[in-house]
Specification:
This protein has about 260 residues and is of the alpha/beta class. The chain has helices at about 5-10, 30-40, 55-65, 90-105, 115-120, 140-150, 170-180, 205-215, 220-255, and strands at about 45-50, 70-75, 80, 85, 110, 125-130, 150-160, 185-190, 195-200. The chain is built from 9 helices and 9 strands.
Length: about 260
């Protein structure tokens, strides 16, 4: 690996410090990688299917903002929950919307609808980065993948969360095992697992180089460990923020 090529994939976006981390925290370990991916890919459109409280989506938006990109971002969700996330109240959407609209409304929209309804709002070949994180049954995630695949651009990347979860009812791992031999891909096992499928043929050169190095027998463990360690830093940040919030709550109770 030459120093010039290594320099082409190193980017300060790997060291992102998320401005907002909330429960659930199962995704936060992938924030450094996805911030880096946004900086390298420079997508015109980012679409997330399944946003919940917003840790992943707001990280995408923060990366867009910090890298001064002209990216448009869209989160598609009913914000009602499902059998895997559990049902939750409207307060989840209201809290996310309040923060999101203040920080990112210039280039981002929250689309409160089903995934099948949302697909009609996007042109074929328009989405450069698609994150699929909805209902995690095999049938559901396969449907989402097949339904949205025509919308992905010639430089498109599709992310799948929870590829390392094999609990009853979860089938993302099964679809991932079917897809990854067919196209260039990389995967991480930490934070419930994340798979990146490179479906486009016009990827930036530095991203092509990274995928090649990641899939190499020597490079793969290094990059996996590198991004896992960066993700652990963000996970620790979430734990500290949570403890600080609990301490503030206790202090307020004592004062009253």
């Amino acid at each position: 690996m030459s120093l010039n090529m290594l320099d082409s994939i190193l980017h300060e976006s790997m060291l992102i410090q998320p401005r907002r981390l909330v429960f659930p925290n199962s995704w936060v370990g992938h924030i450094p990688f996805c911030s880096w991916l946004v900086a390298i890919l420079k997508p015109k459109f980012i679409v997330e299917l399944g946003t919940h409280s917003g840790n992943s989506y707001l990280a995408f938006c923060q990366a867009v903002q910090e890298n001064n990109l002209e990216t448009k971002c869209y989160a598609v969700d009913t914000w009602k929950g499902d059998e895997h996330t559990g049902r939750y109240g409207d307060d989840v959407f209201q809290e996310l919307s309040k923060y999101h609209d203040h920080q990112y409304s210039a280039f981002s929209r929250l689309l409160r609808m089903t995934f099948d309804e949302g697909v009609a709002y996007f042109s074929d070949g328009s989405i450069d980065l698609l994150h699929i994180d909805g209902l995690h049954s095999y049938e559901a995630v396969k449907h989402d993948f097949e339904n949205w695949l025509p919308k992905v651009s010639p430089q498109g990347v599709i992310l799948f969360h929870d590829i390392n979860v094999r609990e009853p009812g979860f089938g993302v791992w099964r679809l991932w095992d079917e897809l990854k031999p067919c196209l260039p891909s990389i995967e991480f096992q930490h934070s419930h697992g994340l798979g990146a499928l490179f479906v486009g043929k016009d990827l930036p050169e530095s991203l092509q180089f990274f995928v090649q190095q990641f899939r190499d027998a020597d490079g793969c463990p290094i990059f996996k460990r590198f991004f896992a360690q960066l993700g652990q830093v963000v996970s620790h940040q979430y734990e500290i923020d949570t403890l600080d919030a609990q301490i503030d709550t206790l202090d307020a109770q004592i004062d009253t």
